[in-house]
Amino acid sequence: MKIIIPDKDAALNYALDELDYSYNLLGKTASQEDINKTINYINDVYDNNKDHKIFSIDNQAIAIVDIDYNRKLMAIECCYTNEAARGKGYASALLKYIINYKKEYFKDFQLVLVVVKTNYKAKNVYASNGFIVHHSNDEYDWMSYRGFNNNVY
């Protein structure tokens, strides 16, 4: 498996697929406003924002990580695996890469993510890679890598 930086079109397709998948898990449909926000987010990440890192593994899984230097926080904003590649270890390999990247370059930073509460497969992958649920509401779980510092949210 090889880590690459995907092109903007591939990232946009991943992000829109993840948006649709997440809303389906919630029993909802993404609004045009949500779709436009996602498109604008990907455009901003690629065109303007140096505080994001974008990783892909073999063009089968993608993650976008936001780095907040003020709060010493790395937030996995998007982690998505192509439907045909699910269950083949791509998400775990990508998470391991991000965790090692954090350990090497951002030792003092928290690594966090938000996942749809009913996305049990994703939650199992996150948990098996050292993420712990530290906060929940009716729709989402907030997870952090190996513990949680209450002042990050």
Give a structural overview:
This protein is an alpha+beta fold and 153 residues long. It has helices at residues 8-25, 32-47, 90-105, 120-128, and strands at 3-4, 52-57, 61-68, 73-81, 110-116, 131-136, 140-145. Helices cover 39% and strands 29% of the residues. It has a 7-stranded mixed beta sheet, sandwiched between helices. Helix 1 (8-25) runs antiparallel to helix 2. The longest helix is centred in the N-terminal third of the chain and has 18 residues, at 8-25. It is globular.
Secondary structure topology:
Elements: E1 3-4, H1 8-25, H2 32-47, E2 52-57, E3 61-68, E4 73-81, H3 90-105, E5 110-116, H4 120-128, E6 131-136, E7 140-145
Parallel strand pairs: 4-5
Antiparallel strand pairs: 1-2, 2-3, 3-4, 5-7, 6-7
Task: Summarize, please.
The protein is of the alpha+beta class. Helix content is 39%, strand content 29%. Helix 1 (8-25) runs antiparallel to helix 2 (32-47).
Q: How far is the N terminus from the C terminus?
A: 34 Å
Please state roughly what percent of the residues sit in beta strands, choosing from under 5%, 5-15%, 15-25%, 25-35%, 35-45% or over 45%. Answer: 25-35%
Low-confidence stretches: none
Mean pLDDT: 87
| Rough outline | globular
